[in-house]
Design brief:
This protein is an alpha/beta fold. Helices cover 37% and strands 13% of the residues. The protein is globular.
Length: 552
Amino acid sequence: MSGLFFIRYLPEFLKIKEFFKNFSDRASSFTKCISCRFLVSFMQHYMSSGASEDDVGAVAYKICTMFKIETPRVCAGVSALFKRELTQVLARVALDPSEVCSFLYEGCGSGTPGHDWVVPLPPFPKPTPTPPPPPKPHAPVLRVLHISDVHIDPYYKENTSAVCGEPLCCRATSGQPDTREEASGYWGDYRNCDIPLRTLDNMLAHINKTHKIDYVIWTGDIPPHDIWNYTRNEVINLLHTASKLVYKYLGHVPIFPALGNHESAPVNSFPIPEITGNDSISWLYDEVEKAWSNWLPGTSHTLKLGAFYTAEVYPGLRIISLNMNYCNSLNWWLLVNSTDPTGQLAWLVAQLQMAEDKGEKVHIIGHIPPGEPDCLGMWSSNYYKIINRYESTVTAQFFGHTHSDEYEIFYDKSGPKPRPTNIVYIGPSVTTYDNFNPGYRIYTVDANYPQASRVVIDHETYFANLTEANLKMELNWQFEYSAKKAFNMTSLLPQDWDHLTYRFEQDDTLFQKFYRYFYKSATFSTPHCDTTCKSKYLCRLRRGRSNDPLFC
């Protein structure tokens, strides 16, 4: 990169703080592209001059503090944690800055050589899609609990500052609040704070006492958001702590977990199988196998290979749990090789073909939703193609990650008009981070009788009003809404969710109801959603494939 380039675009580079603050927003922008290319070029040139790993960490710290991206304490922690991954990845990658940034941000370049790949499908013809029969009156159903994004903070402390100026507050290190309004509550806080363990314990005890559950899906993210402090021991301890707590209250029914992007140290760091030695991810997957294999007999091989598995729930119904960290664009190891890491998608195709052959129905669970901008476009496109091929077998998908209550629709775009084929349910988070009430969901599934469709026929969401709980020092878990009743839906098939998005366009009162539920009825400064905002939400609801421009 020439000196003229640096001079010409220095004003844009000086917006680097904006680049980092909005790193999870993958909408392409000139500022992001220039900042990204500037940083990558600088690091590549610096490393080629003989800079060591410690040198890279030191310059990263200087950039972080110079541009006041975070506090010096956070800058020091992040620089120390990521310096090895950054140097190891850049040393293995033969891509120029434009190609690296194109990988990180779709639309920020002309493409990335070597990262264009296709998972082949079997040559067997696709069965003609037919709508599932409506459930028989009084037919048996399954009640399925969905919990996600617990983000428990073992260092949470009430009456500390909830506005500490760091990515995570409400800790002793956050300092004392300047005003009463800035103090953290006993059960949690709407601002940049995760929840104490007691809040999760209270919720699980309530569920155990109140609801009849047939099985549990648990879609990832256990550690708190203090990513500058992560250590392997810390995330392992939290994995086992949370797993034991869930088992304590819900171990009388099957539990099906999925791995989140915060489960590793550093965060988002999930090396591909080619990476061996101390940089290998086996340290985590071995612990995942220890924590979960008793719940999931016969899954040790794929758990240790890539933290994914399949299990029969009941005759005719199968769970497939995917490790979505191999679609995560913030997983820098994918720059080395993003082609179906661990062969997970090829394995998924094989599992779905076997299920189709046996007449089984499948529910897929994972953490990062496939339509999220965080999911790499090539991975997402392959997954989208697979789901549409097996639309008669996959009757629902369940994900987390966004912390919000929402959904994504898949479409078959081969005809003159897009046809809805599948639905992704994105479950509400237990954590309050940030601006959410804590919540959980229960799905009612048509199941356990001959010719049962295994589709979701309704879901109910529950939450606790955090403002009220902190005032009364007592959590009151309450019913929020039923999807069928709140949105006046006759069923919850993909075409019904598609129709609902068009109703949102015409009926703003109905959309504002959805928007309130999106935040789990939080009472703390929920942002107003105007017409422009509404268009963005409708886009994300119709986007089962990341960065798909069809409806946006």
